[in-house]
């Protein structure tokens, strides 16, 4: 919007940039004048803006950068030790997401406890006890939660597959490796079928929503 743009330029000059003296800002403040574009063009030259008057987005970005530099220069002591709110939140999130970060990995009790858990869960030993603890956590989350146990307990019945009836398409030169490759290919095909089934279910669900719109006669609209 032209009026908002002009008001924005005047606000930047009045509040942040302050390149002109107050008495010299009259032409720039007269936003309803037909001569305002010329005044603005002169202002851009006076502040050494490298862009043309037609390049508004670039000009706005440059003027904002100038305003920020000037604001910081006027209040350097206030801003030099400031930490962005986003960085604080990121640090807190990282700490919350990594509860193992403050553990004393050199504590003998910690080492003994990790080793006992690793032996119990049959996890391979590692020189770094923190790495072993992370492996234990992953195993517990993926295998020992109620949902994981319930899913693992569900037996799947399938038909026996004759590998010799399925052509691999290439020969590794080793019969055992050929058989392993055939098994991996069949497992991959099964995963693709499961993925296709989920895609089809999603398509059916979307079609059901689209095909059954709700009509609100008061609004004169059809749809959710």
UniProtKB/TrEMBL annotation:
A Pfam family annotated for this UniProt entry: RLL
Any coiled-coil regions, as ranges: none
Domain of life: Eukaryota
Listed InterPro entries: RTRAF
Family: Belongs to the RTRAF family.
Descriptive protein name: RNA transcription, translation and transport factor protein
Lineage: Eukaryota, Metazoa, Chordata, Craniata, Vertebrata
């Amino acid at each position: 919007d032209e009026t908002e743009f002009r008001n924005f330029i005047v606000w930047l000059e009045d509040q942040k940039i302050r390149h002109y003296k107050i008495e010299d800002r009259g032409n720039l403040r007269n936003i309803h004048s037909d001569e305002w574009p010329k005044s603005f063009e002169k202002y851009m030259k006076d502040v050494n803006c490298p862009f043309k008057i037609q390049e508004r987005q670039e000009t706005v970005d440059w003027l904002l950068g100038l305003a920020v530099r000037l604001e910081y220069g006027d209040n350097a002591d206030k801003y030099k030790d400031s930490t962005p709110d986003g960085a604080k939140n990121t640090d807190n999130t990282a700490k919350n997401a990594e509860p193992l970060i403050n553990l004393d990995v050199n504590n003998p009790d910690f080492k003994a406890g990790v080793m006992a858990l690793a032996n119990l869960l049959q996890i391979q030993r590692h020189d770094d006890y923190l790495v072993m603890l992370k492996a234990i956590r992953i195993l517990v989350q993926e295998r020992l939660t109620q949902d994981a146990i319930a899913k693992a307990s569900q037996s799947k019945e399938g038909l026996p597959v004759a590998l010799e009836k399925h052509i691999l398409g290439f020969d590794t030169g080793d019969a055992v490796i050929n058989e392993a490759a055939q098994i991996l290919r069949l497992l991959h095909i099964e995963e693709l079928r499961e993925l296709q089934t989920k895609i089809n279910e999603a398509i059916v669900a979307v079609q059901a929503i689209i095909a059954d719109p709700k009509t609100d006669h008061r609004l004169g609209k059809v749809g959710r």
